[in-house]
């Protein structure tokens, strides 16, 4: 019959398990940045060549809200605009 309790792990096996775990952590930590290094070699994406109309840029809910504001004769409409870093001034002037 087998003993239901396991014998304690010997010192050599414990050290071997710790060494394997540490090696695995080191290997994964070293391999983590590799995909980023390869992805940095690609050429940057080209910007969109043409300016889209408001209806093409806005979602249907936002377009409805803007149309409602225009119909009500609203003088001001608050919008949140996302820009590329460093392009805020240029986008603000275009508005």
Structure notes:
The model has no long low-confidence stretch (mean pLDDT 77). The chain is elongated, with a radius of gyration of 30 Å. The chain starts with 10 loop residues before the first helix and ends with a helix. It is 53% helix and 0% strand. It has helices at residues 11-31, 34-39, 54-57, 60-71, 88-94. The chain contains 5 helices and no strands. The longest helix has 21 residues, at 11-31. With 95 residues, it is mainly α.
For the termini, the CA-CA separation is 83 Å
Computed CA radius of gyration, to the nearest angstrom? 30 Å
Tertiary shape: elongated
Number of strands: 0
Average predicted local confidence, pLDDT: 77
* Range of strand content: under 5%
Number of helices: 5
Give the low-pLDDT segments: none
What profile does the largest beta sheet have?
Answer: none
Percent helix, as a range, is: 40-55%
SSE order: HHHHH
Class computed from helices, strands and strand pairing: mainly alpha
